[in-house]
Amino acid sequence: MSETVITRFAPSPTGYLHIGGARTALFNWLYARGRGGKMLLRIEDTDRERSTQAAVDALLDGLAWLGLDWDGEPISQFARAPRHREVAESMVANGRAYYCYATPEELDEMREKARAEGRPPRYDGRWRDRDPSEAPAGVKPVIRLKAPLEGETIVDDKVQGRIAFPNKDLDDLVLLRSDGTPTYMLAVVVDDHDMGVTHIIRGDDHLTNAARQTLIYQAMDWDVPVMAHIPLIHGPDGAKLSKRHGALGAEAYRALGYLPAAMRNYLARLGWSHGDEEIFSTEQLIEWFDISAIGKSPSRMDFQKLENINGHYMRSTPDDELLAAFRIFLPHVDGGPKVLEWLGRDGNEAKFLFALPGLKERAKTLVELLDSAQYLWVERPLPVDEKAAKILDADARGVLGRLHAAFAALPDWSVTSTEEAVRAFAEAEGLKLGKVAQPLRAALTGRATSPGIFDVLAVLGREESLARIADQAA
Fold this sequence. Notes:
The protein has 19 helices and twelve strands.
């Protein structure tokens, strides 16, 4: 029986879920879910100043919004510090690590000498084989790994291939600081081992760390997990993705009106492919995702492609599901809470759902949906934008006055009856349909563009439609 696949997502709490981190979480989630395995969540919260509860909550919120669930409770790396110390001390007892009493001044001297000789700064191993009885008074030691001095350390990476690191370049790294706190290198290895992690999928900026961490695994006689180091995401200009490229956190993409399923689809395609296909259901992603199909080259963030994929999801998402996503989105944007309040009033949800098929055909994001739907809740007298104001000249207002009378006489009010009435009115007046429909649109929505005008009339209903037309009629 093969072992259960266990992946992990191990972010540092920085106050939000970075989009690169979101993709790493997605890849770990897809790999585990596709193999009946588990994805664990570890918060690397050893930086106590940055690791506030608010920062942790922001991470969990971003993952939850993306629909990436994890197994078990999130694990705090900081809370495991006693276990990390225990392992470091066991390595000293086994002769795989040692106490180093080099002073900060000695370490500075080593660095300066290496710089002067054009070498990378490396610890020179001066306490590697010395007895602690020679220790200077008053110096608290660190614990260093007794790394091999010759040969190579091999990282057999599932994305980057087989990489050999000369051991002479991997010095005796610090495992435990002089104040008894573990270093990142030690904590990661101990946590991954204790959590039973079988596959480490993370950014390729950790590739050098992989060699150093492999040495720690070997020193403890532990199995080294399968490693896959994925290329970083770059901005549209090819430079490493940074704040100047725009939105970075998952919560920013939520506020920009992207759907979680569209984000999962888009992020999966940043570095991974399945033939030429661009659109995947989440079920297909889980079934098809494999580490072997991840490319070595960095991916570029393409906001236009993201918008197009999101537009596809907007159109194909069932109306009730899209309404649910819209409700989740509203608290995070200006004016959203008022719309949420409007949706809660009698009949308004049904009105919105009635309008939604026409609205979602035109909208690529929930922001655009919010904007184009505003005619539903805006109060009379409607604010009229510049283009609509130009349409509503004296002739157009006269047309609206005469059309109002025709509408008022209608025995029933529907998409069909209002369309028939407008066509008959235009013919009787000797006008092209646009000369009637455009002023009507401006009066009903305050804009020059909107969903189909007969849909708008049906959604607003007789009373509200006639009142809006009367407001603009001459």
